[in-house]
Amino acid sequence: MARPLVLMPDAVAVVTGYLRGALKARGRPVPVVSRVPTPRPPVFVRVQRIGGTQQTPVSDRPRLDIHCWAESESAAHDLAALSRALLGDIPGVRDGVTVYRVSEVGGPMWLPDDQTSAPRFAFAVEIHMRGRAL
Length: 134
Description:
Protein name: Tail terminator
Structural class: alpha+beta
Number of domains: 1
Helix content: 10-25%
CATH architecture: 2-Layer Sandwich
C-alpha cells in the first residue's frame, strides 16, 4: 500500500504567528520574525528552523532556534523566558495546524549578537505538528 502524500506545515510561520499574538496578549507587542529585520528594531524575536525530522508518515518534528533581542541583558533574558513559557502552551490547533507537543532541546543561553553586540538570549525547541493530506 502506498504511503499517503502529506504536506508538512511551515513550522516557522505557525510559531511566529502564535508567538506574535501570545506576546501581544501579555502586553509585549514585539516583532516576531523569521529574519533579522532591516532596519533592526531594538527589541524583537526571530524564529528559525535549523533542522528536525519527519516524526511519522503524517507528522513533522522541526527543530527551531528562538532568538530574543532587547536593550539590555536582563530585558533580553526576560523576553526569552516569556517566549519559552508561552511556547509551552502552543499545543492545540494553531492557524489550522495541529500541534501535538513542544520539547525543549536547548535551554536559554546568553548569546550577544556577533555583529552588533546587542543583548540576545536564545533557546531551541522541537515542535511536533501534523501535516495535511494532499
